[in-house]
Amino acid sequence: MTQIHIKHGRIIDPANKIDGVGDIYIVDGKIAALSNPPEGFKADTVIDATDKIVCAGFIDLSTRLRDMGHSRKGTFKSETRAAASAGVTTLCLQPDTRPAMDTASVAEYIKDLAEKADYPQIYPIAALTQKLEGMELSSMLSLKQAGCIAVSNANFPIKNLLILRRAMEYAASHDLLFIYRPNDFSLSNKGCAHEGAVATRYGLPSIPEAAETIALAECLELAELTGCRVHFGQLSCKRSVIKIHQAKKYGLNVSADVAIHQLHLSENDITPFDSAYHVLPPFRTEADKKYLRQGLANGTINSLCSDHQPHDLDAKLAAFPETESGMSSLETLLPLMLKLVAQRAISLEQGIAALTHQPAQILRLPSGALTVGFSADVCIFDPELTWQINSDTWQSRGVNTPFWGQTMKGRVTHTLQAGKMIFSL
């Protein structure tokens, strides 16, 4: 049995309402005790966490690791290394792999890749429809049995509302979480920027916020009709937050997340010829950004995610509208969360809860907390440590981030996954 002693750290565990300096004792990959050592404990490894914060490992609800069909953009090895360096111990993998995550054999292959990368805690999200084409439903039960934690059609359209209804009924019958990124594809019309002043000024094809809010409203109606558990991913605008707040008020079983970069950037930050700012949903107005922050602070938005999408240089070299959307964002997850705290948008406890306890509740996982008996997924970070995003500090193969070259505050020093040290600074 391996025994690890983490001493003198400030332990913040929102799930158990703990915030104070103390020690953690890990035995054979599980949390054995806090404060006082268990009987017969003799540490093999001691980690001095003085002046550092100790919390549960982060859980990321939306990520792409590439590899299958996209290995030039990233591999399981490179992107899980980035995740470990960011304090992330659990990853939810979107189903738009190649081939799509629509059969049990693909899900099992993902598990094999995760084991080979020495990062077993990757949970595949099953494709809602075959080949993500939005027409025929996938075999959700066999995908659940193969280890898929939820179902989604990623960023691909579902052809009509009847198919969406049947999919939600099927998911509800197997008690599967349905993850939905609301977007009406006819309204988005292959746009790349928010429909507003900036898109007009630079002649960029635009996406109105109605593309998101109309799709969200339709899904909410069907959630009430079918009783399906729905998690709305990567919200981007004020009206979406209002609709989620109303849905929760009237008792719908829904939750929501926001990508961390949406809380720091708006359409005003876009450099029109810099494709690092090309993300979907697009950066919207300052008012939308402010309301997303308020939604996170008041609990309407339950969790943060990275929405990590590494790309190779070629994918981002063309004119802005012709480039691939997405940002490499795992490694900015912690510093950007701490920046929200520094700006008093949220408390530190709220920020940690949005990356640990809250996503664990959404996924119904026995993790995201430092509860005795839980798997020892632990993140230790120095909130005062500054570092620059550059080729010496960056782990992901994708360097497509608008924060490149910037100095960040707050860095992970140790990451433990099931009691195994997977990263140390």
Topology summary:
Layout: E1 3-13, E2 18-27, E3 30-34, E4 45-48, E5 53-56, E6 58-63, H1 76-85, E7 88-93, H2 104-116, E8 122-127, H3 140-145, E9 150-152, H4 161-173, E10 177-180, H5 185-188, E11 193-194, H6 197-202, E12 206-207, H7 210-226, E13 230-232, H8 238-249, E14 254-259, H9 286-297, E15 303-305, H10 333-342, H11 348-353, H12 357-363, E16 378-388, E17 407-417, E18 420-424
Parallel strand pairs: 1-4, 1-5, 6-7, 7-8, 8-9, 9-10, 10-13, 11-12, 13-14, 14-15
Antiparallel strand pairs: 1-2, 2-3, 5-16, 16-17, 17-18
Helix pairs in contact: 4-7, 7-8, 8-9
Architecture overview:
This protein is an alpha/beta fold and 425 residues long. It has two domains: 87 residues, Urease, subunit C, domain 1 (Roll), CATH 2.30.40.10; 296 residues, Metal-dependent hydrolases (TIM Barrel), CATH 3.20.20. Helices cover 27% and strands 24% of the residues. It is built from twelve helices and 18 strands. The strands form three sheets. Strands 1, 2, 3, 4, 5, 16, 17 and 18 form an eight-stranded mixed beta sheet that branches. It has an eight-stranded parallel beta sheet with strand order 6-7-8-9-10-13-14-15, with helices on both faces. A two-stranded parallel ribbon has the order 11-12. α4 packs across α7, α7 runs parallel beside α8 and α8 runs parallel beside α9. The radius of gyration is 21 Å and the shape is globular. It starts with a strand and ends with a strand. The model has no long low-confidence stretch (mean pLDDT 96).
